[in-house]
Write a structure and sequence with these properties.
The protein is of the alpha/beta class and 123 residues long. The chain has one domain (3-106): 3-Layer(aba) Sandwich (Oxidized Rhodanese, domain 1), CATH 3.40.250.10. It is built from five helices and seven strands. The termini are far apart.
Length: 123
């Protein structure tokens, strides 16, 4: 079972536990704004990048814009042997609404290699 947690619970877990905050939003969404210290693997690249995540070493709190894609990411991770999965309800929108810090970028500030289009399914 995948547990849904609030943004406040995610913040508490980040302070107390070995938690990886996994951002599964698109490249454009991530570079526009993201949570500092989060690990970014877009949903469409997750099947090809599972090897980057240690199944047993951490707790994973997944988020996206509002919580729908991240729930699907949690289901995918669970189906692939991951445990300790949490979906952050409301995603980055809830994070901002709660007043927690995010990193904002303009596309002009992003290095060109970070804003090039990456074909779906390719790391």
């Amino acid at each position: 079972m995948i547990k849904e947690i609030s943004v406040e619970e995610a913040i508490r877990m980040l302070k107390e536990d070995n938690v990886i905050l996994l951002d599964v939003r698109t490249q454009q969404e991530y570079y526009k704004e993201h949570v500092n210290g989060s690990r970014w693997i877009p949903m469409d690249q997750l099947p090809y990048r599972l090897h980057e995540l240690n199944k047993k070493a951490a707790i994973f709190a997944c988020f996206c814009r509002t919580g729908h894609r991240s729930f699907k990411a949690c289901e995918f991770l669970k189906d692939n042997g991951f445990e300790n999965l949490y979906n952050v309800k409301g995603g980055i929108e809830a994070w901002k609404q709660a007043g927690f810090e995010i990193v904002k970028n303009s596309m002009e500030d992003s290095p060109s290699h970070l804003i090039d289009n990456v074909p779906a399914g390719r790391p």
